[in-house]
Amino acid sequence: MSKILLLYSSVYGLSKRICERLQTHLAEKGQSAEVHALVDDTLDPAAYDAIVIGASIRQGKHNPSVLAFVQKHVALLEAKPSAFFTVNLVARKPHKNTPETNPYLKRFLATCPWQPKLLGVFAGELDYSRYGPVERRMMQLVMWINKGPTDPSTRVQFTNWSEVERFAGRVEALARS
Ligand SMILES: Cc1cc2nc3c(=O)[nH]c(=O)nc-3n(C[C@H](O)[C@H](O)[C@H](O)COP(=O)(O)O)c2cc1C
Question: Does the pLDDT of residue 40 top 90, yes or no?
């Protein structure tokens, strides 16, 4: 049985819930997986057999703590089975929902010293009711530019949970490798 570390960088909790779904699926397959915030300094990533990092996009970028973590642990991440997934709204578009086509993932990998062995892209959620006035305006602008919903009553989740489960299967295979 592998011991798998699932780390999330999340603002409104979706990336964390994706990690929790991965954890459930891995547990069903007999794997032990733990979900933790990426910024949890009490963790020792070296104590795990495989590492998965999931992070959402905000204003065009993953949280800077993602790159900081990668830079600190790059040797470990390269040595172990490791995976990365990104969560964003641009990925709701079918032609931007793969590692080869998602602009945020491509940009992240271009600036990142780590080349994860497995990559995932998941569409995020939009819920204007949760945002403050400045964030709401910002998201309406982002959505207007991307031809998405701008109605402030919009609450929609674009995440394909079957795709998350397929990714969990690939994480399991990676951890076994
Ligand atoms: C303030 C703010 C800015 C965002 N900026 C972007 C963006 O530039 N591009 C994008 O595709 N999604 C953007 N999103 C959408 C988030 O990536 C999406 O809501 C995701 O589900 C958030 O996941 P989390 O709850 O794990 O943080 C933004 C969301 C918020 C609230």
Answer: no
